[in-house]
Amino acid sequence: MTSDLHPSQLHQHLQMYERAKWSYCGGLAISMGLLFLGATQKPEYKPWVLGASVATLEVGRRHRQTAKLLQESLGDIDRASRLNFQAWARANTQPTAQLALTVGAIDVNWQPENLITDPVEYINRVQKHVALVGGTGDGKSTQAQYFSTRIGGKVVVYDVDSAKGDWGWVAPSDLIGDGGLPEVDKAMQEALDHLEKMRVYRKEVSKDIPQEFARFYIAEEFPVLADCDNAPQWIRQHAKVGRKRKQFIMVLAQNDTAANFALEGDADILDTCFVRIRLGKKAQDYAKSTLKNPQLEQWLKAGGKKRFMVDDHPCELDLGLWQPNAIAPAENSGGGSEEVLMQPSAMNEFEQFILDWGQQHPGEVLKAAHLSRATRLFDNMQPDEIRIFFASMADRGLGEVEGSGDRLGWRWSK
Questions:
Q1: Which of 31, 41, 204, 312 has the greatest CB tally within 10 Å of its CB?
Q2: Backbone angles phi, psi at 384, to 5 degrees
Q3: Kind of pairing, strands 400-402 and 175-176?
Q4: What is residue 214's DSSP assignment?
Q5: What's the pLDDT tens digit per position in 38-57?
Q6: 208-221 CB burial, b ≥16 within 10 A, e <16
Q7: CA torsion, points 196, 199, 201, 206, in degrees to nearest 10?
Q8: Which of 134, 135, 145 is nearest to 383 (CA)?
Q9: How far apart are the first and last CA of the chain?
Q10: CATH architecture group of domain 349-411
Q11: What whole-number distance in Å separates Cα of residue 112 and Cα of residue 115?
Q12: Could you tell me where the beta strands, DSSP code E, fall in 241-360?
């Protein structure tokens, strides 16, 4: 038999049933206890104890009858309980289910409105340095290579924990850290001395620093390097005046707190002098927790390494499809910026080998795979890193690229 009670009455009837059932059981137990007690009493007290036992038993019997009547009105108690729970669950979980559907229904064709496709142009426009934030495997090294070839200058890397092949595109003499923090600390002092020389040069010779004096410093895992005595001064001085003197710094870390960049007490420097670039999970977490934009979070996840955040702007950049662009902002005397052609910077040994090959094989297209077979110089380099060299050289007027993505090649042309 099924109960016809409304769900709003069902819970109350179930409570009454439980109370009647337990009252009957309790009455039976008390009655038995009184009978046992009466057997041990004096004869004059036994009638009273026996009467109390009978009265208690009668009360329990009536409660049992009440329980039976309630059971008949409710039908199967277990089924009624399940119906009651299901009614409660529908009433209390329906909004949550609707919310989950609303959040999950993200348009796969959604595109952000403030999308950046050229982060270097953005960085040059705001005239800041870069704080690159990302986890292991997010492509920080590849990003660093891309920015260094676009911005220019002699690349110097500080890394006390580099593995073979991590910085295969950097000249060995400019990869500093094999000697631990003391070696890095000494190099940072030399960089500060060079920064001061550039101040004197701009004051006494010309405000236009020659490209041969330009530097692009990469500080890997800065929280580790922050233990160097010169680290706080190195990052503060370069952050404030480095761009005017063609001394660019890119500091890498897994979190962008001021303490991680040796800027405790000067957190404003991180905001005013650095563009934060967040890669991978760091970008997704920023979109979710700080910007509170679930669509942006899903958009970043769907794009893999080619999508990341530049400050509060989403950025999409496929390095395999990077095309030459010879225009870059430069400072003028009025403190603004003007567009000038980038001057070719001094070539490293990798670019020199590519150029020599091209001049010896005019008109032939050079591919990354060809280089890997032709010389051991590129043994520790990934094909995508070689293609960045191709695009960088074409960007500076040294040859031209052909194709795109995995098919990108380079050939010499005057």
A1: 31
A2: -65, -35
A3: unpaired
A4: -
A5: 666 667 666 766 677 677 66
A6: ebeeeebbbbbbbb
A7: 160
A8: 145
A9: 95
A10: Orthogonal Bundle (1.10)
A11: 6
A12: 247-253, 274-278, 307-310, 313-316, 327-331, 337-341
**Tokens at residue 271, please?**
């905001």
Q: List the one residue out of 133, 130, 127 whose CA is nearest residue 257.
A: 133
What is this structure's pTM?
Answer: 0.59
Each residue's pLDDT tens digit, 183-222: 999 999 999 999 999 999 999 999 999 999 999 999 999 9
d(C-alpha 262, C-alpha 223), whole Å? 7
Domain boundaries, the chain: 7-104, 119-341, 349-411
Residue of 130, 139, 183, 192 lying closest to 159 (CA atoms) = 183
**Bridge partners, residue 190, by sequence:** none
Q: Tell me which residues of the chain have a pLDDT lower than 70.
A: 1-24, 27-28, 31, 34-42, 44-46, 48-50, 53, 56-57, 59-61, 63-108, 319-347, 414
Instruction: Determine if residue 241 is left, alpha or beta; phi over 0 gives left, psi from -120 to 50 gives alpha, anything else beta.
Output: alpha
Burial (CB count <10 Å: 0-12, 13-18, 19+), residue 171:
middle
Q: Are 299 and 110 spatial neighbours (Cβ–Cβ below 8 Å)?
A: yes
Report in angstroms the alpha-carbon separations of 255 from 132, 148, 259, 283, 297: 9, 22, 10, 11, 18
Strand ranges, E, within 107-190: 129-133, 154-158, 175-176
Nearest CA to 169 among 378, 408, 340? Answer: 378
Q: Which fold has domain 119-341?
A: Rossmann fold (3.40.50)
Cα separation, 316 vs 358, in Å, equals 32
